[in-house]
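Dear U.,

For the methods section draft, I wanted the exact inputs and outputs in one place so we can describe them consistently. I've listed the two proteins in the order they'll appear in the manuscript figures. Please don't edit the token lines directly; just add comments below if something needs changing.

First protein:
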Amino acid sequence: MQSKLSLAPRYTLDDESAWLIGIDPVRRYWIKVDGETTIKITIPGLLIPSLETLKEAIQSFRSLPVGATLTLPTFTRERLTIHHLTSNLYAIPHPVNGALAWHLFDRETVEAFLLTAHPDWRCAPQDIALGRDTLIQSWELSSVA
């Protein structure tokens, strides 16, 4: 039996496959794993209390040496962990179908994600529904438990 799970899917902003579904109001990155429409994940995005904190996070990312890890706060209990693997290659670990996978990104993509934490950033109107869907799902889970 073949598994559709890739342990290291790679994404770039100029990728031909439409892997980025959207970024919701709390900066969660909605991704189709390997561009596969049936496997979707949400990676929690950076949450900052001030513009100065955003600058510090961006500077920390830009100066991250190869082999090092950067852990940043998010809107959820989860932390955003970024591993610098090699020149222009970063990994963000996040489970897919119960198995931990390292999602690989180039520098430009990770930096673009981090910049969505800017206080003036607004998600696309259609991406508001992504956050609303998550909220509805959490309410359903609460009422079942």
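Second protein (the one for the lower panel):
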Amino acid sequence: MDEVKKAPELVIFGDLGYDELHAPDINMKMQGGSAYYAAAGASRFSDRVGLLSIVGSDYDMGKLALLGADTEGVQTSPGSSFLCVCKYAKDGYKRDIQIFPGVRERFSIRMIPEHYLKCKYYYIATTDPKKQGDVASYIRSTVKGAVIGIDTVKEYLVSRHAEISAAMAVADVLFFDMNEFRLIDKPLLESKAFVYKLGRYGAVYSGKGTAFHAQAPRVKQVEKSGSGDILGGAFMAQTAAGAGPESALKNAVELATMSVTAFGIEHIIKNRA
């Protein structure tokens, strides 16, 4: 008799791959991608996180064990994994980002494991807007009562506005920062809950007739890659576990803030030894 697989509390879809960081006196390559960062945040609050992504043959799946996530939804395809190259100027603040998608275009909704579709909460982290829309629409039509969160970046709101707007229209909770807010079609916000990310000033939640601000702790920022994804994953995982939005946002902001205090995020990953 086949074992019945337990549904995750939260399924995270997005990129898995590598980040390269180049800054004065620092050159490093490490695990990265929006789904990795979101899962790192989510795993601090849930032991039942499912990952949905595609990686290349160069990806070290063993590293994902530190997150304690269900990886049955992570497919491997011949070729290179997603890569984000981030180069900082000498002042340590200005940065140039290059994205190499790798095999992510090969992802298909047919790859979604059946037990992932028994989940109620989904977080669609930043990735190709067409893929975001495909996954969001499939979940909406397949999973009754699904709660879907979605994030994006300014570049996609400029270059692929129609696609990301269509994906956002399917979601329940939108995540964005100040630059992205200016580009979002405002009628979208009227029927959605949203988390407005304010960087060092924390974040604002609005939804169901309520709004509140979670202040970020004061820290020295070293490197901020993935902090927004960490916040999103942490918020959605707590929501899936039954936490109210105010406490979920407070904890998510605190964790995301701590993530920027060092290169890499090993210092915030839950110890599962």
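Candidate sentences for the figure legend, describing the second protein: The domain at 10-265 is CATH 3.40.1190.20 (UDP-N-acetylmuramoyl-L-alanine:D-glutamate ligase). The helical segments are 34-42, 129-142, 154-159, 161-170, 178-181, 187-190, 227-240, 245-259.

Thanks,
Y.
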